[in-house]
Design a protein that fits this description.
258 residues; mainly alpha; globular
């Protein structure tokens, strides 16, 4: 148990439909934005990874040091994790030659280890418990691994398994629908369902992002990566302005509504 002095206000948003809409848009932006830097600018996956890791470290430190929930800052960190995840997964799968299956297996093991250590240390991996700097560090490490894994899974499904980008998006969309059905119609652990949905939105975003910017002959719609990224960023900003978010409650707060 944490001392009372260690527990502050939650700095992660309440999990609502708006949260998932923005999450899918952010993960799609991560795919198009990551590819824009590493491929369109021809910087390569290694340099792109270093750039986005630097952005991630800066935004995570700002997020952890913040005293209250700031929606724009929170989603900047999410976008940074998904861009870093895109270039890191591509570097491992393609530049290092690990391949999609190998890369996905390694990343799944890292994600499982992150969740395991978090649970062992804190007794819970619920987002409702993200109310201290230490737990927040676990939270962001887990998210980074989940975003990187999602990139590898999305590419593996679309490329290696021959489903194409539309087919891959349908597969992950159906999987998310099943998670949503489990939420509404079963008593399955809400924490398990949250992390399942969080992980699945990343490969959905990866396949949708590839669908938007890949050449038509490769099964894409051939939008410019920069155009697609700008449109997605604008959509996220509009959502944050028009659909205000509030911080989620932590276990010590009352769950009664006023």
């Amino acid at each position: 148990m944490h001392r009372a002095a260690d527990i502050g206000a939650s700095k992660v948003p309440e999990v609502t439909l708006t949260f998932w809409v923005i999450k899918i848009a952010a993960t799609t932006l991560g795919e198009t934005g990551g590819d824009a830097v590493s491929m369109s600018l021809d910087l390569g996956y290694a340099v792109g990874s270093l750039i986005f890791i630097g952005l991630l470290l800066a935004t995570v430190l700002a997020q952890i040091r913040a005293k209250t929930f700031h929606p724009f800052l929170y989603w900047m960190v999410i976008i940074a994790t998904t861009m870093a995840g895109t270039t890191m997964a591509d570097f491992a799968d393609r530049s290092l030659g690990i391949g999609y299956a190998g890369g996905s297996s390694i990343l799944f093991a890292l994600l499982a280890a992150s969740l395991g250590v978090w649970h062992w240390s804190e007794g819970s991996v619920s987002v409702a418990s993200v109310v201290s700097p230490r737990v927040e560090a676990f939270y962001w490490i887990t998210i980074l691994f989940s975003q990187t894994l999602g990139t590898a899974l999305g590419d593996w499904m679309a490329d290696t398994n021959g489903l194409g980008y539309e087919g891959g998006a349908i597969v992950f969309g159906v999987a998310l629908a099943l998670v949503a059905a489990a939420y509404y119609f079963t008593d399955v652990s809400r924490t398990l369902l949250f992390w399942s949905a969080f992980i699945l939105t990343r490969p959905l975003g990866a396949t949708v992002g590839d669908l938007l910017d890949k050449p038509i002959e490769h099964g894409g719609l051939a939008f410019s990566r920069f155009t697609a990224s700008a449109a997605l960023a604008a959509f996220i900003v509009i959502c944050l302005l028009l659909l205000p978010q509030k911080a989620g409650k932590h276990p010590g707060e009352s769950t009664e509504t006023s």
